[in-house]
Amino acid sequence: MADLNLRPKFHITGEKGWINDPNGLVIFNGEYHVFFQYYSQNIYWGPMHWGHAVSRDLTEWKHLPVALAPDEQDDGCFSGTAIVWQGKIWLMYTSFKENGGGENIRQLQALASSEDGVHFVKHGIVIGEKDLPAEYSPCDFRDPMIFEENGVLYCLVAARKVDGRGRMLLYSSEDMFKWNFVCDVFGRDSGGIMIECPDYLKDLGLITYCEQFQPAQGSKHLNIHSTFYRLGKLDLEKGKADFGESEIIDYGFDFYAAQSFADEPVMIGWLNMWDRNTPSDKYGFAGMLTVPRRLEIKNGELWQTPVINMRKVYEKKVGGKFSEKIKTGAVKITAEALREFNLLLRKKGDMYTGFCLKDGEWVFDRSRSGEAIKGKETDADSLAGIRRMPFANGNETQIIVVMDEFSVEIFADGKSLSSTVYPDCDADGFELEVKAENCKLQLFEI
Ligand code: FRU
After folding, report:
1. Is the CB of 273 under 6 A from ligand 1?
2. Is 197 in the pocket of ligand 1 (CB under 6 A)?
3. For residues 334 and 341, is the Cβ–Cβ distance under 8 A?
4. Any ligand 1 atom below 6 A from CB of 78
5. What's the rounded Cα separation, in Å, for the pair 259 and 205?
6. Which DSSP state fits 120?
7. Fewer CB in a 10 Å sphere around the end CB: N or C, the chain?
């Protein structure tokens, strides 16, 4: 009999029911607020609410009442953003109206605000159909993201031209209620059929967004939906974007719809993927969010470090074989001149999750992790439960492995690979075989 109370220890879930995207990450009165797409009544996606959790240390989360719910205005409250402005939290979200489906669907941007950070009042649609340039479709217009520069508010919204693919539109406002169209940011169609969940960190010169059904490039972006980043700048006065090539944010199976806090370069993603089964549904919940990751740009690339409040248990020098019993927590391994690395996690008999260095790249293997996860991907790696990530091959290698019930997130020299895994609840073997100079392992309790 499945233990219905089995939940991740430090990853945000909806406690019961379904969650997807993180929404409106914001710091208000000294607390981190995270909202998320939520349907408590079932383990499947349904009429979207905004769930709400708060934390002081980004590790221990307390759930607050649902912040936004469907009503006569909204059939669903889709993804969006939060900003603290004039002493209040403002949420802008996509008001979804079914209207019988197809061409009649409407996705328009609506506003809500709160003085206490707990109770929210809706203010109706503020970027509506009349604010959409003529050639764009009001059926696919969603996921607003607000930021402020020089006293002006700006908002990025994912959009699509009628008969076209994904676009990203920029609006500006002086008062939060009246928004003016500025430009189509990239000025061309996306590779995938639609863009979702744009985010812009102006201090880092970083834009992130998702593409649905984007074509894979070799062994890159094998998930049918991926989250990308590009480095560069939005010239707000000229309404022009100057960004480099798109790069993948996370190399694992389960990462989507990432967002960062308005005042801190810390990002959280959805630790799951569309179009897959979710074996945790037998425990009454589906979906969780990743651990928060601090973002930096190093040598022209995104560098992610997990932000978790944890206590060091011990530090050891390791060489050759190391084994321990670890089910949840974090392990940090630093090694010089790394030549071989073979790690088995959540091991119990033949059951394990693998992460190893093979032919000059990192290879993650969840083919023997436990309960099977099936998606729509049909490439050989996906069918074999494999994901790959570039190996930096520098003098020193740093690996952080974050393990919680149902997930493993691996950070190797700032690149991340996040996946869900569903092993037996008592699978706790941690076996490492390593060849390197000065290899050190630190174990942390969370
Ligand atoms: C991304 C997404 C968003 C949308 C939300 C609906 O995962 O499809 O584009 O607002 O989920 O729940």
Report:
1. no
2. yes
3. no
4. yes
5. 15
6. -
7. N
> How far is 426 from 132, CA to CA, in rounded Å?
53
Q: Is the pLDDT of residue 14 over 80?
A: yes
pLDDT in tens, 32-80: 999 999 999 999 999 999 999 999 999 999 999 999 999 999 999 999 9
User: Using an 8 Å Cβ cutoff, are 405 and 9 in contact?
Assistant: yes
- Ligand 1 centroid–CA 37 distance in Å is 8
First vs last C-alpha separation in the chain: 28
17, two tokens: 């029911």
Q: Which residues contact 105 (CB under 8 A, 6 or more apart)?
A: 96, 97, 98, 99, 139
Distance between CA atoms of 417 and 293, rounded to whole angstroms? 12
Q: Rounded to 5 degrees, what are φ and ψ at 376?
A: -95, -5
Structure tokens at 392: 């930096």
Do the bridges between strand 285-286 and strand 17-28 make them parallel or antiparallel, or are there none, so unpaired? parallel
Q: How far, in Å, CA of 56 to CA of 307, rounded?
A: 12
Give the domains, in start order, of the chain with CATH numbers.
17-293 (2.115.10.20), 311-445 (2.60.120.560)
Cα-to-centroid distance, 135 and ligand 1 (Å): 22
Q: Residue 275: what residue type?
A: D
Tokens of 250: 């996370």
pTM exceeds cut of 0.85: yes
CA distances from 415 to 107, 127, 252, 260, 409 (A): 34, 36, 10, 17, 10
